[in-house]
Design a protein that fits this description.
This protein has twelve helices and 13 strands. This is NAD-dependent epimerase/dehydratase family protein.
Length: 348
Amino acid sequence: MAKVVLVTGVSRYLGGLFARRLSNDPSVERILGVDVVPPRHSIGRADFVRADIRNPMIGRIMAQAAVDTVVHMNVIATPRDTGGRVTQKEINVIGTMQLLAACQKSESVSRLVVKSSAAVYGSSPRDPAMFSEDMNPKTLPRTGFGKDSVEVEGYVRGFSRRRPDVEITMLRLANVVGPNIRTAITDYFALPFVPVPLGYDARFQLVHEDDATAAMILATTGPAAGIVNVAGDGFVTVTQCTAIAHRPIVPVPLPAAGLLGTVIRRSGLADFSSDQLTFLAFGRGLDTSRMRTVLGFEPRFTTREAFEDFARHLDPVVPGVDGVGEAVSGAAGGTATALSRVFDRIQP
């Protein structure tokens, strides 16, 4: 049972939310919240320790506090708040390496819980309808957070071979949404006009921020569960999401979507990568049987309910957006068709 818990990434939203919720568990005697900058939100009764997991000093912190459980929440999904992609990769990959090295040397650590992502499965037209935890991706993520998550999981598997005495639970979360969290997917559907790959309407699953946090807490305080997919029941499609969010769509030919994504990313409106655009074209399905039978977790929100809760807190594009959205979407469709014809003509 977790007594002294070290939580990384508490200055980020999900890490802080996890620390606050874990603080309500009286069986946990002490919580250490670690990050490079002080949190601007409450972290409950967690003691904040200013430290960089990329620095070997993290091992001394574990030893001094006799940490028995490490919860790695600091696998960052977007480079927006980290100073760019280079820093994001350093924190995700180098930070995880150093953290696992400290865990390997620790005599007190007996459990490791890692927040991973369903992005490790990639997204392609050859994917199965549902990915179970023992399946490999048909196409590995090539860039960004998905690639980082694949590397992080590789290091965790290596650690498990070196320290078979440490219990490990790794949660592959579907895209997290909610009224307060900001991720690449929430920024995307918050755009005033949502670019949609022309001719595609991907289906995918989501998990509410409260459910993601509850699953992480159960992984921390309950029995070890290994690798587990976590997602809300059901699916939504891209166009269903735009309708729920009252956002007009702009259909864009998939080969040209990368250029548009670059423009949007550089404008700071949302974080786009080629892997995310592929996800929006082909989607992804997760088998969540282990979530119920092994982890023993039942989400409160379905995929649709999670997105609806997020959408309720969106500002409208313009007053009376429902009617305007339909009109603009129709006009955008005509524009996208013209763009598609132009693009076809310039293909070699």
